[in-house]
Amino acid sequence: MGQRVLVVEDEEDIAFPLVRTLEREGYEVSWVDTGQRALDDLAGIPADVVILDLGLPDIDGLEVCRRAREAGFEGAIMIVTARAGELDRVVGLDYGADDYLSKPFGLAELQARVRALLRRTSHGFAAPADTDPHGLRIDVAARRVHSGDQEVPLTGKEFEVLNILASQRDKVVARSRLMADVWDENWYGSTKTLDVTIGRLRQKLESVGVTEKIVAVRGVGFRLEGAAAAPDSSVQG
């Protein structure tokens, strides 16, 4: 199951494009149009990100944010609102929001913000005790990676690339997404920078016996997957 996003928005003409855009990104998306329905949804089904409008018909979005945090919700909350004042922004963050996006906003910007929130709040993944002891363990908060008891020394860019691939484990992540998320959407340098980073990352993982492999999908991107029975010489970085 993919990462889940809950859209809390009472205006259909805003909600529908959001839902379609996020679903095309591969997220599992639910939509509710009131604050109470949002709280009920979060009480029953965990979400990784909540996109929360402040101007809801029943409960103010700030109150929804506060109640969700008090109930123990640990996912990311991004407030979207037509209220552009600095005071509203500060209050929203004080109530437990992680990010704040003013209307009107571009869908590309919202996608980038959601991906950034998922990177910051994801707990990575850990191999269960009965699986390969050389599987990856990623501590996002500490920005550290371990294989068994051994730490894998990574640069900041290497960590970001690995974390994104791990969050989409066994799925192909496009080169364009990795460049936009790890470097910058306005990066004008060569995309060979990504290939060099992937090459160093592979070497470091292999040097400590990590069983997961970073596989290149020609013309598309890269995928993190479990160790293959034998190397595939047809796959090139």
How do the helices and strands line up, and which of them pair or pack?
Layout: E1 4-8, H1 12-24, E2 28-32, H2 35-44, E3 49-53, H3 61-70, E4 76-81, H4 86-94, E5 99-102, H5 107-121, E6 136-139, E7 144-147, E8 150-151, H6 156-167, E9 173-174, H7 175-183, H8 192-207, E10 213-217, E11 221-225
Helix pairs in contact: 2-3, 6-7, 6-8
Modified residues (4-aspartylphosphate): 53
GO biological process, one term: regulation of DNA-templated transcription
GO molecular function: phosphorelay response regulator activity; transcription cis-regulatory region binding
Q: Major sheet, described briefly?
A: 5 strands, parallel
- Classify the fold: give the CATH topology of the largest domain: Rossmann fold
Overall 3D form: elongated
Query: Measured on Cα atoms, how large is the radius of gyration?
Result: 19 Å
CATH C-level category of the largest domain? Alpha Beta
Note the total helix count: 8
Q: What is the terminal-to-terminal distance?
A: 28 Å
How confident is the prediction overall: mean pLDDT?
80
The proportion of residues forming helix, as a percent range, comes to 25-40%
Strand order of the largest sheet: 2-1-3-4-5
N-to-C order of helices and strands: EHEHEHEHEHEEEHEHHEE
Q: What structural class results from the helix and strand content?
A: alpha/beta
Overall number of strands: 11
Approximate strand percentage: 15-25%
Short description:
The protein has 237 residues and is α/β, with parallel strands linked by helices.
